[in-house]
Amino acid sequence: MLNRRTFIKKAAIGGGLALAGGFPFESLAGERTKKLTILHTNDVHSRLEPFPMDGGRNEGQGGVAARAAIISAIRKEQENVLLLDAGDIFQGTPYFNMYKGEPEIKALSMMGYDAVTMGNHDFDAGVEGFARQLPHANFPVLTANYDFTNTPLEGKTIPFTTIKRGGLKIGIFGLGVELKGLVSDNYFGNTKYNDPIPIARRISEQLKRQEKCDMVICLSHLGYEYDNNKVSDKVLAAETEHIDLIIGGHTHTFLDVPTSLKNKAGREILINQVGWAGLRLGRIDYEFGSRKTSKISSAQSVIVSKQTRVG
Amino acid sequence: MLSSLKSLRYLIYVLLLVTASCSHSYQVTKHTPGSVKVKDVSPDSSLNSLIKPFKDQLDVKMSELIGRADTTLTKKQPESTLGNFMADAQLQAARKIDPLVNISVANYGGIRISYLTGGDIKLRNMYELMPFDNMLTIIEVPGNLLHKLCDHMAGLGGWPVSGMSYIIKDKKAINILVGDKQLNEQANYKVAISDYVANGGDNCDFLKTATQRATNILIRDVLISYVRDLTAQQKPLRSSLENRVQYAQ
Fold first, then answer.
1. The domain spanning residue B153 has which CATH number?
2. According to the model, what pLDDT value does residue A30 have?
3. How confident is the model at residue B14 (pLDDT cuts 50, 70, 90)?
4. What does the pLDDT average to over B224-228?
5. B 93-132 near A (Cβ less than 8 A)
6. Which residues contact residue A80 at a Cβ distance below 8 angstroms, ignoring those fewer than 6 apart?
7. Nearest to B197 by CA among B129, B127, B139
């Protein structure tokens, strides 16, 4: 398969003849453009209420009720919306100390989150503590690099999911940070952390190739970047080929606009992260074009190449 | 001519089928950023109804007034007023259990608010400052291990301490003073610290060899008691910068 693709690519460059146009195949492509609005949060840390009116710099900001109102307004305007969270749902306000995550998960369900991943603080009531709140979740928890075998979360999370919205197919997978040294051993128990890079390569390729997703999103709690060689979203972006967007967390990084980078294949990949505490709602509006049109031009270049003329 | 055109069309068709069957149909052509601040919006009533019963029960407990801060305490590196308050409270609590505790160390990442506004201190503030259920622990470490801990703290930009001081130079700790004496590599020191760090948290694996004395007192309760004690003495919470941790000039 790869060889054939390479051949087409080379032939396209070698042939260099433009498409003559008017072929009936264009109609197969359906609509020319599609739209998708991606909304996201990270590191909300049990901030169910807005920050108190105490003169502090965040006073009156955040809170699930305000966030839900913004989300509803966007859903009224936009047909295709995805709502995602990149982990650390738990810990940081007395709500978590008192209720151990029940209102947090119920709020995410009510807001209509499509998927989340787990952050290190989502282990703060132990693996069993997170598992205990899952009956309140109406969305999948995506964790591709945690192995929960022989833990209370075994079989309760999935590595990836695919979601169809308005004729688009979106693949989403989740990656978590190394727990050792960050989370107390007794909290994560038998959870095994696996190197995220090879897993991200495998799953993102599977989502694009086998699952034929139009877009691949990684929900990552790895952190935006580090000044050492620790794996981060920037490393992940540079080391993989099939992810279109990384929605990050952990480092509480406020990005005013997404960071645009080149992936391993030289194609664009975005990283976005919106600080913490639900102070902001991340939003990126995507437009998609038919991929078949570009494939047609590749194919036709082949036709004018030497082999086809002989035939 | 006609047949060659036909075969040409057939070939295109086959190629299209092959390419279409192994790839997705659409690709990103444009993206527009639009993140927004969550504020100045009338809140959603169903979410408010969802959290109301949780909030009502919580508010009763958390709005308890436990004391006053005479100025705003902040979180900062290498040294901060919020960090010094935490380290001081730990040291005071540990010395009630073992008067020979020399020093206290708090992990910077464990300070979970960036400031504590001057004025009333409510129970809620202490939960937000220290939401984790970490326990106060007393560890006994040889001087060389304490030196290693200081280097570790320096490498991370400085952690709050009490009863000691150090200077950060090239991500290492220099001029480490315990009380007013230079660190003695051969001596043993008793350190008040959280069980999280003592058990290797924040990459402090090297501390696992130290002798531990558990206290079963939550660090949060240590902070709450410290403020309550001040209130009982009719004193506000006061914390200042004392050059406990400095960057080398």
1. 3.90.780.10
2. 54
3. low
4. 98
5. 112, 115, 117, 119, 123-124, 127-128, 131-132
6. A34, A35, A36, A37, A165, A166, A168
7. B139
**Residue B55 forms part of a structural domain:** no
User: Is residue A299 predicted with pLDDT exceeding 50?
Assistant: no
Cβ burial, residue A273 (10 Å; 0-12/13-18/19+): buried
Which structural domain, as residue segments, surrounds residue B204? 66-247
**Is residue B23 within 8 angstroms of chain A, CB to CB?**
yes
Residues in Cβ contact with B160 at an 8 Å cutoff, skipping those fewer than 6 apart? B79, B80, B83, B84, B86, B87, B105, B106, B108, B111, B244, B245
Could you give the ipTM of this predicted complex? Answer: 0.82
pTM to 2 decimal places: 0.80
Map tokens 């527009």 to a residue: B32
Amino acid at A215: M
CB spacing of B27 vs A70 below 8 angstroms: no
Give the one of A70, A290, A302 whose C-beta lies nearest to B25's C-beta.
A290
* Chain B hits for A34, Cβ within 8 Å: 26
Dist. CA A64–CA A69, nearest whole Å = 9
- Which parts of chain B are beta strand (E)? 26-33, 36-37, 65-69, 73-74, 103-105, 115-116, 119-122, 135-142, 161-162, 164-169, 172-178, 181-182, 188-194, 211-218, 245-247
Query: How many domains, in total, are found in chain B?
Result: 1
| Selection from A153, A215, A209 nearest residue A179 by Cα | A153
**In-domain check, residue B114:** yes
Pairing, β B26-33 against β A192-193 = unpaired
Can you read off the two tokens belonging to residue A81?
């919306």
Sign for the CA dihedral angle at A82, A243, A144, A223 comes to negative
Residue B51 lies in a domain: no
Cβ of B43 within 8 Å of Cβ of A308? The answer is no
Cα separation, B144 vs A247, whole angstroms:
42
**Residue A30: closest CA among B24, B160, B140, B82:** B24
Beta-carbon separation of A95 and B30 below 8 A = no
